[in-house]
Design goal:
With 106 residues, the protein is mainly β. It is 0% helix and 48% strand. The protein contains no helices and nine strands. The chain has strands at 15-20, 23-28, 33-37, 42-49, 52-56, 59-63, 70-72, 78-82, 86-93. Strands 1-2-9-4-7 form a five-stranded antiparallel sheet, with no helix packed on it. Strands 3-8-5-6 form a four-stranded antiparallel sheet, with no helix packed on it. β5 (52-56) and β6 (59-63) form a beta hairpin.
Length: 106
């Protein structure tokens, strides 16, 4: 049995790796921009390395590895710009399920 050399990940251009359903590992090279767009689901972003600016109607926020995870509502228009070579996790979140309302009997 021969040992295989580890494969390196592509860092020459924007690339998306599907880790699991609803879970993506994304690389955005410095200067990469995504035009305004929206997702049909809620999304949570976590920056692993680098710096990403997100712009929406609510304003602009810059995410770094030390920042908390950032959540976007389903359907919210946003644009992104990688301010440095950036690795991030994008997680699609299911809509919250309706909680049954308990009724008290009198």
């Amino acid at each position: 049995m021969s040992a295989r050399a580890p494969q390196s990940l592509n860092t020459a251009s924007h690339v998306v790796y599907r880790i699991a359903p609803g879970l993506l590992l994304v690389f955005k090279p410095r200067g990469h921009r995504e035009a305004p767009h929206a997702h049909p689901h809620r999304q949570r972003l976590r920056i692993l390395r680098g710096k990403l600016r997100i712009e929406s109607a609510r304003g602009s926020v810059t995410l770094t590895p030390s920042a908390r995870a950032y959540s976007l509502a389903a359907g919210r228009q946003h644009a992104t710009t990688a301010l440095a070579d950036t690795w991030l996790i994008a997680e699609a979140l299911a809509a919250p399920s309706a909680q049954p309302v308990s009724r008290r009997r009198a």
